[in-house]
Amino acid sequence: MLRCAGRLASLLLAALLSASSLILVAESHEDQGFHGAAGSRILLQDPHQHTHDVHCSRERSRAAWEAIDEYLMPFVEKEKYELPSKCRLRPVNDMFREQEQHKIHFDINDWRCGFCKKAFRAEKFLDQHFENRHKNLLDNSEGRCMADLCGALHCDLMMEFKKPKSKCNAAAALRNRHLCESLADSCFPINQGLAASRLHACFAEFFLRQFCDAHTCNRGAKPFPKGGRKQTNRFYLALCVLTLILLPLFYLIVFLHQREMKKGVQDLRRFSKIGQKKKPS
Predict the structure, then answer these.
(1) Strands 103-107 and 110-113, how do they pair?
(2) Could you tell me which residue, 251 or 135, shows the higher pLDDT?
(3) Spatial CB neighbours of 138, under 8 Å, sequence gap ≥ 6
(4) Predicted TM-score (pTM) of this structure
């Protein structure tokens, strides 16, 4: 009886120990499961912690930068002028600049993403791809939407947007002119020393004539009167074409002239020989 009681007690002790170990294991698994679930929730939330809607037109931002690059930057580069950091016309202040620089254009129907090398048939599909797949590369901080400057930079003209003929909105023209003049003040400040102020004043005057004077209801005022990069390229292209056309024509005229000269010399010699033969008789 004592042996049976001892065996029973040992079995009960073993059962209690195994049950307690199972409970500890279950609790540890529950703790691990909780931490794993919490970790997974954090991972799921992380991609959305810094996402925010972009309320900036990519198309109009592109038009604004095209106006800057075509009608301002050639003159800035020529004088080696550095736009100040507070100037909103600097390329680094364009939130889409990095994505635009990663566009690879092989052919009219072949656009590639410079980040993942995916191919698209048109630029608009590549823009949608940037919006869907590479939105995290945008720095959507304040003051980086170039489309906000379209009123000053004549984006509609750059986009070849044909407005219906209507009466000029004097209030809108005045707002755009004020925006344009504020850009001139911030990009070409005149309170930085005598020599710098002269240069800044020249650039400010240029910017006012190039961009701001056209913001008026006077139909005679047109934007970009100083010309730009494309006009210069077209001039050189026309000059090259004209040279290619006139140069062969010049050589042809020289060749024909030399041939006529040789023919005239030969005729003169023949006539002289004929005259010499007739003379003895």
Answers:
(1) antiparallel
(2) 135
(3) 54, 95, 96, 99
(4) 0.62
